[in-house]
Amino acid sequence: MKKSNLLFSAVMALAMGSLASCSSDDLVTEVQGQETTVDHDQVRYLNVTIASAGGVGTRAETTDNDFLQGDEPKENFIENMTFVFYDAAGVPTGQAYDLSSSDIADEDFESSTGSVGKIWKSIIPVSLVQGQNLPSYVMCFINPVGSAEFKSKPLSEIEGIIRQEVVRGNGNFPMTNSVYYGDNPITGETKVRMIATPVNTGQLYTSEEAAKADGAQAIDIYVERYAARVTLNLASGTDVIVPNATDVNGYTLTFVPEFWRPNAIDQNIFAVKRYGLLGDGNIPNYNPTFAELQANFKNKTWWNEPEKSRSYWACSPSYYDNEYPKVSDDITDIAAKNDYTGTTDEDKYPYTLHYFNYNQIEAGKVEGGSPLQGSVKWENGFSKTFYARETTTAAKAWGWENTENTAYNPLASIASAVIVGHYELEATGGSAAVPEGDKTFYLYGKTEGKWNLYFESSIVGAMVKQQSVVLKRTAPNTYEAYREEDGFIVEHPSKSVRDIKNTTVAGRLVALQLDPLALPTGDNELYYYDVTQPEGNRYTQITTGNVEIVNSNLLSTGYASKYGDGIGYFNIPIEHLGGAVKTEDGKSYNFAQCPPGSFGIVRNHAYTINVNKISGLATPLRDKMQPIVPPVDEVSYYISARLNILNWRIVPTQDVEL
């Protein structure tokens, strides 16, 4: 059987964000006025231009302030690429074409400006067997992870392929066609989702010479990286990290940064950008029309730019799951194992987003799980870039257009940058000395508007004074509050205790509890008032059988915030391009007015956060295993933003005071 070779002239634009592509919706086998099949084996040729987001190992400047060239050599390096061809129905046709690093030379690239960083041009053969359909679309997979799957699946399934890596083990960046809503010249449809670049028969040449000739029609392919680029800048020095002597009675607290990384991040990424919506009842719409998306964005147009063959929004896998924890117990109660590597439902990590704990941030990965980029370590300042997975959220999760959102914790639904560290304490005004060798402290109750600070040696005594649940019998039928420390501990309430009251408790909070293993006995036996008993017989001795009921009643004494080993964190929601609306004081967000696209991380976008000052109190972590689920009731950051994006697309730079 004789094979037919068709050539196409390929222009690949590593725009780190723009590309002409094909609609996966309602693909048809009829191509408008074009030949659709070959009657004998043949090779045709395509003149291809690939537009990329930066040069191979070089830095290129852009004249468009909305786009920034990749400045790290690996951000733009192409080690290998695969071209896959599809017929008008989106089914693979012909033979996929692979190029390795030996086929790709630096001199093959040209510099560009604006949305496009670098341009690579070549002639690509399309080998077809008799009876196969001519290609109507082409996709280019650069530095792919698992290219075999890309070669075998139709376009309708390509959108569902999941990957974990956004940076390969060798440091190279996977890329593929950019996705946007535009006009499809193959089907004649307008404003449809384009995921693959259209090819018309006039761009398929029967000889390499014809494909190279002056006037040959080139195919422009625009590609973008899987990764988003997040940079957090925090300088050292007392003008930035300000000792806090105003919020706590008798002590000055100085925060010592240790690490930062993105948090509440998707554990997977779609290999090809996809769009979607959540309808009534949170039913996913995986194929929204342009009109439906425009309605979702209230007719704003920032999210789509077909002129540049790119778009500035997407839906990550978690967008469709639409489930988020309110408190860290929602994670640890289900995923009982700290490394989350179990195989039973009880041991599986319960959310699509991952909420890191201190140990995982310090180690740079989830224990036993898939490798992740290590956190950025404090080295007399933060300056290193982090490459993150795309993570986006439906606006209903943070309460858009709802005056009160009770279904979710808005901050837990939003990708954020977290800075973790510990406090150094200095006693002032005759306060108790800071214990040597133990950095743990507690904030419990306020005096004249300032927190009272306690250590391990003093917190039980302070909380016992406030309790009236546990009683001691002082005479027949006479009971009074037990004020001794014996038998009491301060800890985060157990699941069984919380379940009795059907209450949620933020991870940072601890309560006064009786230790079931150290209950006083004999003359020191303790009692509580049991309203379930008949009148006149309600004073009931506390035993191991009812101590959890007593501990649930002790929650009424109130909670202390525990800084285990002195550690805490600052949480900075990452703003996108949708126009987040802040409260009047600038310290928080008016989530009900934050439209779709206000927050999130989108592939091939560059996010910069400048932390100008740290002076407020960090949110406590009671220990190093507590997942960081930002509290719904505390926000302590100031954010101002200005637009500033890479080719990688630049997203508003956030200037933050913490």
Automatic annotation (TrEMBL):
Signal peptide: none
InterPro entries attached to this UniProt entry: Mfa1_C
PROSITE patterns listed in its UniProt record: PROKAR_LIPOPROTEIN (PS51257)
Domain Minor fimbrium subunit Mfa1 C-terminal: 562-650
Superkingdom in the source lineage: Bacteria
Name of the protein: Minor fimbrium subunit Mfa1 C-terminal domain-containing protein
Organism field: Bacteroides caecimuris
